[in-house]
Amino acid sequence: MTFPLTIRNIEKSIDEFHLNIQDLTFEEGTISAIVGTNGAGKSTFFKMLMNLVKQDNGEIEVFGHSVRGEDDAWKQQIAYQAQTMIGCDAFTGEQLRNLMAEVYPSWDESLFRRFSEKLNIPLNKKVQKLSPGVKTKLNLALNFGKNTPILMLDEPTAAMDIPSRNYFIQFLLELMERGDRTVLIASHQADDIKKLADYLVFINKGSVTRLLEKDSLVSSYRLFWLKEEPQVSRIPGEIKRTYKKVILSNHPEATMAYLSKNGLVIVDEQVPELEDIIQEILMEGEMINV
Ligand SMILES: Nc1ncnc2c1ncn2[C@@H]1O[C@H](COP(=O)(O)OP(=O)(O)OP(=O)(O)O)[C@@H](O)[C@H]1O
């Protein structure tokens, strides 16, 4: 089976930073959130997928075609949005639209117009005159207009106001309804990840530490409010204790079995917020007693 994106053991060293991502595939019809702390390697990973940063070893394939091959027709299959719009300052949105419509045979005028009109993007202004948030919106309109099967967005909502961000989420989810697009989105926004992602790819110090399906990730964590403080410092499954009696567990069954066996009464239990789970994974393994 040919996947939209296949990664085989890529490696890259930049000064002290070493990126190594082993076998990873991204499937059609899915949105994967690339999650990691600042400097973890998310942008470098995207640039390697675009062959803007050359890998030292390994292979990256777009629909089965190596990104290092002579033929770079694969580029027309991907719309990539970097964190900044480089080299566009002197152009207006309309001029950039004309350029993109020529380069991308899959260009969809209605996607471009719908997104830019809804967000009131001034297409007759030069990019250099736009605020950071409006630049991002224009960049998104252009990338949506490309109508490619793969979309890679590097922190697209960082500068956007709340209504625009919500519209972006709605727009992207509508685009996904066709079922044949593959989206990778690097984001620090828990709300974006919660609403958009099917999968979470955690990157830490240049390595993928976990690839998890969002729903099963969320259901594997539980918060237990206990009637009394447990007398042991750590109970099975416990990864964090707050207010002495609130236990966050990533093995709820093991935690519940222990609590029941030891007569510890659960007053309430809840599935934690995705943001709290992400925070725990990014801080991995730390036991915090508040
Ligand atoms: N051109 C470069 N020259 C030297 N080091 C670089 C270069 N580009 C990236 N790096 C280093 O690679 C590492 C990963 O950076 P990268 O921008 O990929 O992280 P990130 O996860 O996208 O971070 P953020 O969340 O802050 O955007 C960092 O240590 C960074 O300093």
Automatic annotation (TrEMBL):
In this record, what's one Pfam family?
A: ABC_tran
Against CDD domains, the record matches this protein to:
ABC_DR_subfamily_A (cd03230)
Signal peptide positions on this chain: none
One MF term in GO for this entry? Answer: ATP binding
Q: Which InterPro entries match?
A: AAA+_ATPase (IPR003593), ABC_transporter-like_ATP-bd (IPR003439), ABC_Transporter_VariousFunc (IPR051782), P-loop_NTPase (IPR027417)
Q: What residue stretches are annotated with the ABC transporter domain? A: 5-230
Keywords annotated in UniProt: ATP-binding, Nucleotide-binding, Transport
Report the superkingdom from the record: Bacteria
Keyword Membrane found: no
Answer yes or no on keyword Nucleotide-binding.
Answer: yes
Enumerate the PROSITE patterns for this protein: ABC_TRANSPORTER_2
Query: What name goes with this protein?
Result: ATP-binding cassette domain-containing protein
